[in-house]
Amino acid sequence: MPPAEQEDAGAATLDGIRRVLLVAPNISRRMGGEGIKALQIHRELKALGHDVRQVTHARVRDEMLADQPDLAIDYVEDGPTQVWLHRLRAKPMLALLNAWQLHRLAVRVANDFLPDIVHFTSPISPVLPYFRMPGRAVVIGPLNGNVTHPPAFRDRESAGKAIGAAILRPLQWLLGRLFRGKRDALLLVSGGDRTAAALLLGGCDEDRLIRTLDCGIPDALVDRPRVSHAGVNRSFVHLGRLVPYKGCDLAIRALARGDAGATLDIIGDGPSRGELTALAERLGLGERVRFIGWMPTGPALHDRLSGYRALVMPSLAEANGIAFQEAMVLGLPVICVDWAGPQELLTVDEAIMIPPDGDEAVVAALAAAMDRLGQDGAFADQLAGRARAKAMALGFRWRDLLGRWQDVYRRARRSPPTTS
């Protein structure tokens, strides 16, 4: 097919949505879930045939120039005010200033690029403000948040998180009237009723909330054969940033209580690593707990994950969790706490879902689950098969998810954009 005909065919396929301006504070393979997801959205939209341009922060420039030189990116630079606010640890003011600078650059780029859609892919919090872009068709999301710890674990919640939950209603009411960006946009919502409730408090209309998955999975992982399980395998893995709400300490304590032959590899890094290392030493676990460190998403990580019996992720305030989706696709059984994000993806038919009834109850249940899965390969394989089937039925593949987002893009274009 001649190039001109290819372009015409692509335009027909995309139904007039050709130019997409993406906006996110970070796009990166090295900066956690939101950055990874924002980068993947850019690459997948480009692969679908869109002309994509990105606005993001200069902190990722070196990585992008080295690893993603083909992407069209405009960068927000830090000024003296950001440096000053960072030194003062004035996080709310810094977050607001960063959001305003991203918005201002997005407006300038949009005036030059003339996008069909402006899509803010993060931050994902339903509370953080967005500014209006009059005259533009705007999509925001997926948004996912309003997550608190289970009642039995509220003592683990930081003071700031507890205060935020207590003032959510008046804060959302105020922010929704000061910053109208979310109220004027179509919103992709992945956090279910809890996220929708926070958005409605901020004055958003129910008919502008579109339910969606939080994240997609690359073809390379979806197309891998599912891991099969048989016989005995007492090797378990925890995957993610080492921060308190991930519950890695609960997994380590469960290992100490359960089968003496079981092992736990911890893939990831973060501020809690020293504390977790000390806990493993104090419990006398020795080589049974190994801190692997951070590994980038890709074939090497997926090959490694294929050798474990299950993912042990007792997160206590997980908005969603890409790790859960990847495990479901890979065929790695999941042991998790029945709360927040995992509830949006899994049921007791596809995973071992542990009631969040407090430290001791969860540790005991984790130990029992690891003992059973370690010994019973047939049961592990049943869970893995059901979880994989559910992932396929929900359309976890990025191209399937973004294909559904095309309908949202078209709806945003049909909605009369605000002009004032």
UniProtKB/TrEMBL annotation:
InterPro entries: Glyco_trans_1. The keyword rRNA-binding does not apply. Residues 235-370 form the Glycosyl transferase family domain. Keywords: Glycosyltransferase, Transferase. It comes from the Bacteria. Transmembrane segments: none annotated. CDD domains: GT4_PimA-like (cd03801). Gene3D superfamilies: Glycogen Phosphorylase B (3.40.50.2000). Pfam families: Glycos_transf_1. Belongs to the glycosyltransferase group 1 family. Glycosyltransferase 4 subfamily. PANTHER family: COLANIC ACID BIOSYNTHESIS GLYCOSYLTRANSFERASE WCAL-RELATED, GLYCOSYLTRANSFERASE. This is Glycosyltransferase family 4 protein. It comes from Sphingomonas cynarae. The lineage of its organism: Bacteria, Pseudomonadati, Pseudomonadota, Alphaproteobacteria, Sphingomonadales.
